């Protein structure tokens, strides 16, 4: 990239540091538009010294799983903070206007500051970003001065070609440019995809790594997503791609960077862990180093080469700062900053100029809340205002009415009230013979991205569900599939919720109102499904009979470990899940007779 954007961006950060918080936003807004483009070699403010110290403190700011949440999230909107007396306090957090302020404030006084992300910055986004194929989020990240990110699984929701457009810019191939004379420029920062290769060429589809440089200091960043991405993305989204082992890939490129003389290396890994506490500030290293974390990232961390000095992770939407020893037994940080821009991690890496490596014993890190009681960054407010103006005519259109909150993403039960509504909507929209003749419908829990909230979010009025709110719940606009499955395959699909790929972390399908059964979680594997309890329209499932089953195309491709659902035949492709959801709201609710939350009692769970 050219030197001019680098100089502009460094100058912008220097201005921000000198001015103080009260005038940061004004100075940023006054900087020429070209300054939002940047390459590597910047790194903040500060000048060259004649006598360089032997060590340099590098500031690594990181976050993950933004999912296009430019505005403060309305669901999953808080982080839990453990108090001194042991109680837990939920604190409202998130929104890029506040994230920008937090990061800019944190950078003050740190001449060597790098901002990195752990993937899923786009995809499953609220309407403000999703309606425009996430161009607004990329523009926001440019303004936030993101230096580098790895891809996550959601970066592949619209396929590799669209991901390349987000990196390189250009108008959308079908939607075009959204306003005359305004062309999308793409990401100023590199997306890394070390373990994602083209089936045709065998080469990474994007850069596998990048090297950040300033005043002789060099830090390498390697980016990978979870090897299991094809299991959580539509088949079309990963068509023509191969996803490789995270450990092998990171170790391969760590060796390559080491041969180039880059001894300080950070891995950005879109895979994560499960913390022992829901509080972001819990002690992850109790009772021993890394003792407060479980899940896939633990084994990955233990297998990654000691050449790598820190791991920034994501995917599970959890918050942790843990020390997991590397294969040589040396301490190494593994961090994650929740999701939706609610937290950021501030890590100090002490860099030794004599060895060009990180002094592991001098590493310090903590997660910080992106609080909403701080000033907003005006340039991000302006960006949100611009895109809201374009989205407004669509976003505010009423779709239906509800009598109370209908919890989906924030539900604490395996079967959620909103999951029931969505499954019912899919059955209603595909039951007619000419629309597929569906007899039952399944919805994957991970596809429910929000809640329906009774309180008005704008001027629509309490209880009104707008298109924007419905889109937030169902942002993928997956096409519906209706397929033939035998009774045996249907039962197998239910068993796959709690066995095989899903045994350790069950994925409970949301089911339409006419299906009921019992899960006995005191048992293991497929035996958890009490098969003789399964009833469809009150009748037992006939193993030899053929049933017409509705689901979105993600499940229809065997996603989320549901291989049995991918075996369907006689497929009919219908409208999008969002279209059926909105149609159901319109047909089943009015202002005087709003839709009430279902009881969520279709699945009986024995614990």
UniProtKB/TrEMBL annotation:
Q: Which InterPro entries match?
A: 5'-Nucleotdase_C, 5'-Nucleotdase_C_sf, 5_nucleotidase/apyrase, Calcineurin-like_PHP, Metallo-depent_PP-like, TAT_signal
Residue ranges of every copy of the 5'-Nucleotidase C-terminal domain listed in the record: 404-566
Signal peptide range in chain numbering: 1-29
Q: Which GO terms describe its molecular function?
A: 5'-nucleotidase activity; nucleotide binding; UDP-sugar diphosphatase activity
Q: Which GO terms describe its biological process?
A: nucleotide catabolic process
Keyword annotations for this protein, in alphabetical order, are: Hydrolase, Nucleotide-binding, Signal
Positions of the Calcineurin-like phosphoesterase domain: 63-318
Cite the record's Basic residues compositional bias ranges.
39-53
PROSITE patterns attached to this UniProt entry = TAT
Per the record, its GO cellular-component terms are: outer membrane-bounded periplasmic space
The family annotation for this protein states: Belongs to the 5'-nucleotidase family.
Please identify the protein, giving its name as recorded.
Answer: Bifunctional metallophosphatase/5'-nucleotidase
Q: Which organism is it from?
A: Streptomyces liangshanensis
